[in-house]
């Protein structure tokens, strides 16, 4: 079986037919499936979609059970947690629905961890980190785009001269470089390449 466009988060099952891993969708399995929008809903109270998965969390005064349901808890109601709580050996602790969130100074609300600035996120050398609420993802560096070549996805240089996305002067030549471009004034003209006289 060959899939010309590849199956990013899945397996090739037949001519250009991808079988997606759980949590992903699309012709090439390149899109995250929003499980929170599915019927029946996977969580009883609230649902947070994550890359390839989801997290359940409860309203204030409820405790999250292993099956994703929420059980009423007087102790949780008293603590007033933003995203529900857990009781361990009689100790009540507020929960955050994702590892990319941490309990704030008040111990009740959750604040975002910027994985990009703390260095917790590891992106390959030609990708940059983009922080999201509760998580992060890796995106191609500026001047590069995601392409499927020789059996895998990688960040390939964008040729701004061919795609006509350069800002060179009318009287300048565009020269493509890795991740960028240069402008050089044509013969008989001088300047930066963006301005030629």
From TrEMBL:
Record gene name: Egfl6_0
Protein family: Belongs to the nephronectin family.
Source taxonomy: Eukaryota, Metazoa, Chordata, Craniata, Vertebrata
InterPro entries named in the record: EGF, EGF-like_Ca-bd_dom, EGF-type_Asp/Asn_hydroxyl_site, EGF_Ca-bd_CS, Growth_fac_rcpt_cys_sf, Nephronectin_domain, NOTCH1_EGF-like
Calcium found in the keyword field: yes
Ranges of residues in domain EGF-like: 32-71, 112-150, 157-195
Species whose genome carries this gene: Donacobius atricapilla
Localization per Swiss-Prot or TrEMBL: Secreted, Extracellular space, Extracellular matrix
UniProt name for this protein: EGFL6 protein
Keyword Lipoprotein set for record: no
């Amino acid at each position: 079986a060959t899939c010309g466009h590849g199956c990013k988060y899945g397996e090739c099952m037949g001519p250009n037919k991808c079988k997606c891993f759980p949590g992903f969708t699309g012709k090439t399995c390149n899109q995250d499936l929003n499980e929170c929008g599915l019927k029946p809903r996977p969580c009883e109270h609230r649902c947070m979609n994550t890359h390839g998965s989801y997290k359940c969390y409860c309203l204030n005064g409820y405790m999250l059970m292993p099956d994703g349901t929420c059980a009423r808890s007087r102790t949780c109601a008293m603590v007033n947690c933003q995203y529900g709580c857990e009781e361990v050996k009689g100790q009540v602790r507020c929960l955050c629905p994702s590892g990319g969130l941490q309990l704030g100074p008040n111990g009740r609300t959750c604040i975002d961890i910027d994985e990009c600035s703390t260095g917790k996120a590891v992106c390959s050398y030609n990708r940059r980190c983009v922080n999201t609420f509760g998580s992060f993802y890796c995106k191609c560096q500026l001047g590069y785009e995601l392409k499927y070549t020789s059996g895998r996805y990688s960040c390939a240089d964008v040729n701004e001269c061919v795609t006509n996305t350069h800002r060179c002067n009318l009287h300048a030549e565009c020269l493509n470089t890795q991740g960028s471009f240069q402008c050089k004034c044509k013969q008989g003209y001088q300047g930066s390449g963006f301005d030629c006289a």
